[in-house]
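User
Take a look at the entry that follows and flag anything odd:
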Amino acid sequence: MIFVTVGNSNIGFERLIKAMDALAPKLPYEVIMQIGSSSYIPQNCEWFRYASYEAMMEYFKKADVIITHAGAGTILDILLLGKTPIVAPRLRKFKEHIDDHQLEIYKSLGTARAGNTSIRNKTSWAGNIGCP
């Protein structure tokens, strides 16, 4: 199962949700997305807006692949489970956050070699999660 999480920001992360929804039918995995306040509603996979911390941890444990926004707490929780996430930072230029602190977190992860896979476009997303 591929689990996608965008955190609990009141700003949507349409770029990630739309791209993963487009990829979902092509993947050999079930895709489940936590979409937060995103206005785009996925058509090709299971989704929900928010869940408790305990429920999110269960999704992380069950997932074969985790794709996450670059929220420090979320990344830390995933790493503590011994998993390496695919990290997609929310970017200010796309109005996904008020600043680029997630990009800075992402860059720090690359330096630490903790979760240094980025998602920049649909092609790299497909390659990162084993899409043909």
Notes: The chain is about 35% helix and 15% strand. The helical segments are 14-23, 53-62, 72-80, 101-112, 122-128.
